[in-house]
Amino acid sequence: MSFLYLGGLLFALLGMVVVDLRFRLFFGRAPLRATIVLVLGVAFFLGWDAAGVGLGIFFRGDLALLTGVQLAPEIPVEELFFLVLLCYLTMNAYGWLSIRRRRHVESVSS
Amino acid sequence: MTTYWLLNLAFLGGVALVALVTWLAHRMPAWRLVGLAAIPLLVLTAVFDNVLVGSHIVSYDPRLITGVFVGVAPLEDFSYSIAAVVLLPCLWALLTPRGAATAGRGGERGLRRPRARAATPRSRRSSGGEPTT
Questions:
Q1: Measured between alpha carbons, how far is B15 from B59 in angstroms, rounded to an integer?
Q2: What percent of chain A stands above pLDDT 90?
Q3: B positions 14-43 inside 8 Å of A (CB)
């Protein structure tokens, strides 16, 4: 049992939160909308995971780097945080590009 | 036997459906930015997934994957990132209040292009049933 992977994910997520709030990218821009988008996204990917596990396509490997806490058979709790990170990173990147473009447009017009 | 690609096709189909809805609702995300966001996302996925697979956190049934790898990560895994970078901005755009969306996008287009050109897509769009407010 190890907190290495979970700890790494939480550290990365902390970074996402800091960047988000500092530059108002996702939750820092529209908290309610961000919550809905994140919940829907993570639910979608958990469904994808469950289908993959159900079909025997992929499965959890060694426990060496995992806490051993399971969400479902073959789906460790770390997967939930991984999917949150995937969705958060996506929307931070999209949000950052959006405000960068808006600034660019404003500077061109002035 | 359902392969990994077949599974991904089903879920990517779901993503395509949501994208279609944004098109029908005239609430598409900025596709150019979606494309740009995909670049760092795919690079980070390649790094992250290689660590995951390399450290045996996740394993695959070798009979159900094509055996095309990026490092040790199966190519199929990148479907998740592609889905995320399309699905989430689409949901975001769909949930953006109409006023905020059109003010933001219309304003940007109007500023970037001459007014005479901006009038063309606007009139075309209004004939497509969108209320002209």
A1: 25
A2: 87
A3: 14, 29-30, 33-34, 36-37, 40-41
